[in-house]
């Protein structure tokens, strides 16, 4: 195996998660790259570059964590903090039957991500710098797991690290799972000639010791220490560059350790906002409350904070 002829997998172009393992060291990992999914998620929000970078990283983190759980429901990564960028939310959805179809339906919604970020523009303009610690301030990172079929909702919360989302997520695994974990996240704008706004790309790499290896009696830390150092050397550009195959990146990092990739899983932008659901909620309001929400033409317009879609509900739909 060489860099010119790397390990092969049928990874989809653009948006995917690629699982891999280094079995002899008791280590597993995932490589996520988002192209059109991150671009679509971020184009709905007018964020300056430093804030958009954090929002993009949150999408990659949600995809890393959610896909690792083989989740059929939703995993949410959310920060709440004291800085100008006081809320960042990213949802990962596992594959599930299309809305309105039963469990035996053939049609499935794809695995996907969506995101939202709230920025106080006035406070942002007054910052001396645009690093994560200045943007976010002090706060917490919450990871919420909501299975669709059976199981209970779980939420873990850790303090937000001034070093960013990746460091915060590593602390989460250290405290809740007791599994040594390395996470690298990156997001970057791609400027395309003729397009008014940049196209945001996001990516992430997660390396983790398996539960079996972490509990093995007399285990040596040497392999893990060496591999974790290697994982931290990956450059942001290597992660987000869609012209660089993920297998090539993994080969560069771990070619001495018999790294093996698994079948890749495609990802997409996915938002579950729905006019029918909003209509059903509004039917629970009385006429006076609905009138207060309506525009002058009598139509209630609800804009989804995630995808930017404006849902229009007329009075005839609420009778």
Short description:
With 319 residues, this protein is an alpha+beta fold.
Q: Can you tell me about this structure?
A:
The chain contains eleven helices and 16 strands. It is of the alpha+beta class. It folds into two domains: 16-269, Hsp33 domain, CATH 3.55.30; 275-318, no CATH class. The strands form four sheets. Strands 1, 2, 10, 11, 12 and 13 form a six-stranded antiparallel beta sheet that branches. It has a six-stranded mixed beta sheet with strand order 9-8-3-4-7-14. The longest helix is centred in the first third of the chain and has 20 residues, at 49-68. The radius of gyration is 21 Å and the shape is globular.
Give the helices and strands, then pairings.
Elements: E1 16-22, E2 27-34, H1 36-43, H2 49-68, E3 74-81, E4 85-93, E5 96-97, E6 108-109, E7 112-119, H3 121-125, H4 132-136, E8 139-146, E9 154-159, H5 165-177, E10 181-190, E11 199-209, H6 211-215, H7 222-231, H8 236-240, H9 246-254, E12 260-261, E13 265-266, E14 268-269, H10 275-282, H11 287-293, E15 300-303, E16 310-313
Parallel strand pairs: 7-14
Antiparallel strand pairs: 1-2, 1-12, 1-13, 2-11, 3-4, 3-8, 4-7, 5-6, 8-9, 10-11, 15-16
Characteristic terms for this protein:
2 domains; alpha+beta; 30% helix; 6-stranded antiparallel sheet; Hsp33 domain; 6-stranded mixed sheet; 319 residues; 11 helices
User: What share of residues is helical?
Assistant: 25-40%
Q: Poorly predicted ranges (pLDDT <50, ≥5 residues)?
A: 1-10
Tally of helical runs: 11
Query: Strand-and-helix sequence, N→C?
Result: EEHHEEEEEHHEEHEEHHHHEEEHHEE
Largest sheet descriptor? 6 strands, antiparallel
On the 0-100 scale, what is the average pLDDT? Answer: 88
Content-based structural category = alpha+beta
Q: In CATH terms, what is the architecture of the largest domain?
A: 3-Layer(bab) Sandwich
> What's the oligomerization state?
single chain
Strand tally: 16
Q: In CATH terms, what is the fold-level topology of the largest domain?
A: Hsp33 domain
* CA-CA gap between termini: 66 Å
CATH class of the largest domain: Alpha Beta
Strand content: 25-35%
| CATH superfamily heading of the largest domain | Hsp33 domain
Overall form:
globular
